[in-house]
Amino acid sequence: ISLIKKEIETFISSYNKSLQQKDKNIKISDIKIQKNTLSLNINSQGIFRPHNALLQLKNSISKEFGKKHKLGVREIKINNYDIQFDLEKKPLKNVTIPFADVKFKEKQATISLNNIDEEFLQKNYIDRMINLVNEKVENQYYEGKGEFWKLIWESGEKKPIWTKDPTEEMTKLDWLKQGPTKGKWFFRPQATAILKTMEKIAVEEVLKPLRFQEIIESNLVPFDIWLKTGHLEGMPGEFYYISEPATRDVEKWERFVDLIKITKEVPLEELEKNISTPAAGICYAQCPVIYWSFKGKTISEKSLPVLVYDNTAVSGRYESGGRHGIERVDEFHR
Q: What are the transmembrane regions (predicted)?
């Protein structure tokens, strides 16, 4: 492109003027052309963002010089990109985010990015990073605060018929057995009969009179569903993740099996070699898969509300603390 250096410089100068007609606070400077590389700086203190200006410039260059010189932009590389923006509140402490360094000065934040490409810009990561910094600063003012609630209505006080701990009493009677892993329970026939009776009352006396219909949903939830519902960014530390076998090839699993036969223990390092990175998790709540089932469907207003319930999926939630009996567990039966 050095052969048409003057022509390109003139075009960029003209493009810069057209930008400043829209926003006088943006400027393209330090234009350099060496062989097949065009370098420049874009600075903006207005509403027009430098990365948007850069993407538009790329398209304009291809359009202007494509037919005339068979010239286009092969790739975009950004060596350094500093983004400054104001915050509503002064940060109480530093924050970190992926892909960038974050610094604060009073109520101003600066995000510094290095060595990013066009894909990074096209996928709108920058806006999400700005929102993430704002969100993290805002959350600093709510961390550790008590739960807020407002009483709307309450029934009259009722005297409990029985006040003992059900878990403790049923364990004494051998109706329950804790395990086989933490936060889970084995319900023997007597305890199961009690739960099934409670379930029958809920279905017959509440759900059916309200015209709810039963459905059966998958117990496994792929990441793309949790991405859309927001669960994956909201509570990733509470899921039980699922890994599929990387292969069914008997030879690949031979050493794993041999180690078990010899040691009578699970060789975890060998297992890791033969399983895939998780791409799904055990049901956390029933609603995400129900939402997914309506993907691509149009529901008329007269069909609302959609009244369905699931009675089969078992929810898994990693409760790091606060487990108690059969009331607060990692595994929820319906």
A: none
